[in-house]
Specification:
GMP Synthetase, Chain A, domain 3; alpha+beta; 8 strands; globular; Ribosomal Protein S8, Chain: A, domain 1; three-stranded mixed beta sheet; five-stranded antiparallel beta sheet
Length: 180
């Protein structure tokens, strides 16, 4: 049984961050852009059963839900709270073991991820979202926003520029960051 302890606004007006009573994941993040992608995840699949849900993102102790702009939060919140109270948390799929290839273990990528872990990801999590590094090709870093950040107008441009500027200052002045 999961209890919603608090609900936070996000910069995305169509997304809310629901803080829950139990830890959902220890290190992974899970992002589902549509109902079909959630087929093998009972938590996300159940949330998508609620009318008007557009995307689901969860990690640690929160779930961020993006809704259709034509649906009211009141209806969604009531159904979500009811679903979570009945949900068996033990059905959440186990976290996968992270295995990096030798290419991914480059010094540059390690440094980038360390900075993202310390300075960027906590801020994004505070707004109900996350960030995944998709690839590093030379000096081009491809990232993917998750949760509330995935469709937030400020993430698409403003945050992207801020991340690029941070990495240029602290890692390499030639790094370019794009949203994948």
């Amino acid at each position: 049984m999961l209890i919603v302890q608090d609900v936070d606004l996000t910069p995305n007006p169509q997304a809310l961050k629901f803080i829950v009573s139990e830890t959902l994941l220890k290190r992974e993040t899970r992002n589902f852009a549509d109902k079909a992608s959630a087929e093998n995840d009972p938590l996300a699949k159940g949330i998508f059963e609620i009318n008007g849900i557009v995307s689901v993102f969860y990690m640690q102790k929160f779930i961020t839900i993006e809704k259709d702009p034509t649906i009211s939060w009141g209806v969604i919140q009531k159904e979500l709270i009811s679903f979570l109270r009945k949900f068996d948390q033990s059905t959440i799929p186990a976290e996968e073991e992270i295995q990096l290839s030798s290419e991914e273990e480059t010094i540059l990528l390690k440094k980038i991820n360390q900075i993202l872990d310390q300075r960027v990801r906590p801020a994004l999590a505070g707004d109900g979202g996350g960030l995944e590094v998709m690839a590093l090709e030379g000096n081009l870093l491809k990232i993917k926003y998750q949760g509330a950040c995935g469709s937030c107008p400020s993430a698409i441009r403003g945050t992207l520029v801020a991340i690029e500027n941070l990495l240029r200052r602290e890692v390499d002045p030639n790094i370019d960051v794009i949203s994948a």
